Amino acid sequence: MIRRPRAASADRTLRDLALAVVESADDRGVAPIVHAGHPVLRGVATPFDAQLDDAELAALLRVMRATMHAAPGVGLAAPQIGIPLALAVVEDPGMGSTDAAVVREREPLPFRVLVNPGYEGVGDERVAFYEGCLSVPGYTAVTARHRRVRLTGHDETGAALDEVLTGWAARIVQHETDHLAGTLYLDRAEPRSLAATDAIGARWAMEPTPESAAAALGFSLG
Fold first, then answer.
1. What's the maximum distance between 2 C-alpha atoms anywhere in the chain?
2. Which DSSP symbol is given to 8?
3. Pseudo-torsion of CA 206, 167, 46, 4, nearest 10°?
4. Close Cβ partners of 152 (under 8 Å, ≥ 6 residues apart)
5. Cα 12 from chain centroid (whole Å)
6. For the CA atoms of the chain, what is the radius of gyration?
């Protein structure tokens, strides 16, 4: 990343907060995830601009990755561990060759870091599937998102990102980038589709499409 001298007190505060989270991680390197209702999830994250040096940033990203894996999840934004910086990590092992994986276009997504990411839809096609969030535990809901997006931003080395993603990878990027704008997936979800992740909610979420849920719960897929 392009470095600038640290002078602003706000930058020092963010650095202190990030280092405190890293230092408080457990012996697995895992930090607590904040849940819906915490103000940090509703604020706009501060763009990353050298608030942390390279070693400090690497330590924070290790904690974010470990926390994502332990949850387990396929993405984590810094605000989800209480740090309002525009950073996110993503990684998805995929779903193998299941029917759901094919319909959802869910292929493995290697680990990567998103720094100050942004996205825009490519084309008009939107797809609706059940989606959950580590900051909204115990629930899932159908959320319509762009099938394809153009991702921009940088990685942790400062290399520019400008690429088109399709399917579940595009969904993950939209979800995590939304976190950095103070948006939860529930803001975009179909309210009548909301389901607890107990036996029936888990069944809805694992079906290739939410058509059965739509019929049973009385909502439209658009």
1. 58
2. -
3. 140
4. 117, 118, 119, 160, 161, 162
5. 25
6. 18
Over residues 76-104, the pLDDT tens digits come to 999 999 999 999 999 999 988 888 899 99
Give the whole-angstrom CA distance, residue 144 versus residue 135. 19
Whether the CB-CB separation of 29 and 68 falls below 8 Å is answered with: no
- How many Cβ atoms from other residues are within 10 Å of residue 162's Cβ? 9
Write the CA distances from 175 to 105, 157, 172, 178, 212, integer angstroms. 16, 23, 5, 5, 24
- Alpha-carbon distances, residue 21 vs 26, 112, 184 (angstroms): 10, 21, 22
Q: Is 91 a catalytic residue?
A: no
The predicted model scores a pTM of 0.93
Residue 62 has pLDDT above 80, yes or no: yes
**Full strand arrangement of the beta sheet holding 195-196:** 126-131, 139-146, 195-196
Give one word for 138, left, alpha or beta, with left for phi > 0 and alpha for psi -120 to 50: left
d(CA 141, CA 135): 14
Would you say residue 23 has pLDDT above 50? yes
Query: Could you tell me if 84 and 181 are in contact, meaning their C-beta atoms sit under 8 angstroms apart?
Result: no
Catalytic residue among 91, 131, 156, 176: 176
